Amino acid sequence: MAKTPDPGAEQTPRSRFLRFRHATGAQSWGNRPSDLDPQRIHATLKRIGPLFHPRTGLYPARVHGWDNLPAPGSLVISNHSGGTVIPDVWGLMAAWYREHGTDRPLHGLAHEMVFSTARTGRFFAQRGILRATRTMARTILSEHCRDLLVMPGGDLDTWRPFSERWSVDFHGRKGYARISLETGAPVVPIAHAGAHHTLIVLDDGRRLAELLRLPELFRAHIFPIHLSLPYGLAIGPLPHLPPPTALRYRVAPPVHPEPLAPGAEPTQAQIDRLDLLVRTQLQHELNALRETSEAVLDRIDAVVQRARGSAIRMTQRDLHPRELRRFAQEIIGRGKTAVAVAAR
Q1: What is the pLDDT of residue 318?
Q2: Which of 69, 157, 240, 316 is the most exposed place for a label (fewest CB within 10 A)?
Q3: Is 0.70 surpassed by the pTM of this model?
């Protein structure tokens, strides 16, 4: 019988660059769930939490549907947005701990590049982030019975073109469905919208990434072209400065995997069915977020058009100064209404 890998042991990186880092003695983090430190999480939330406050933050993180979350030990699946800065993850983590506290930790699986240096590896490991391996996922769900966040689309999803921001596409990655079937963990789809409005991705640059051999060297499948701050037009997965944006989430009801017979392996048909159910539910929730966004834009447009009409009427009439003040106050009031609507 093959020996089960030790989740606490160092895992050899799969990219050529990180295998070199591994061989030269770079410290390995992200292999031990016990590295999670509630005090570090509290300290981080104290520093960045105000940024994601649902009412007063620059990036207000608002979650609808917390009551759909089952008992601990669920596999949380979400679409991924916002480039290298990943504001969607920061916002969800801040909202999660604001709602549940550290008594219900949320682990996340991350690309091995996160753990390529001791400084970044230590920082993220102490906040519950782990290497994206199936062994680690099974350990969290089965042995520790903790919640696990997985974004199957990875770099292809977080750097998808702006025109595809309302689409759910995991690019055929279904490992999460196998894990759910093997462990019996329910899948909780959480749709997100907002982070992909902090930059405009013109092209994900997959062909360019292949020419540069990035999949082999760094396990990176993109080399995007995007419009973002502070660069303007930029090439490559550069971290950008996100403008203030509302981060919105919808938690869908859990999707329960088909039960397996003892010792049975999930079939490809079972994996495909579960993946389709999850993606369909996630797309449904993302569509709901889109409808809300478009409704808000329609309301803002209506307010702006009324203000514009008032301004035109004011310029076409010979008004007394008192009437001018009244019209000015009306336009200012409608402008404030538009801002308030956009902030909801």
Answers
A1: 52
A2: 316
A3: yes
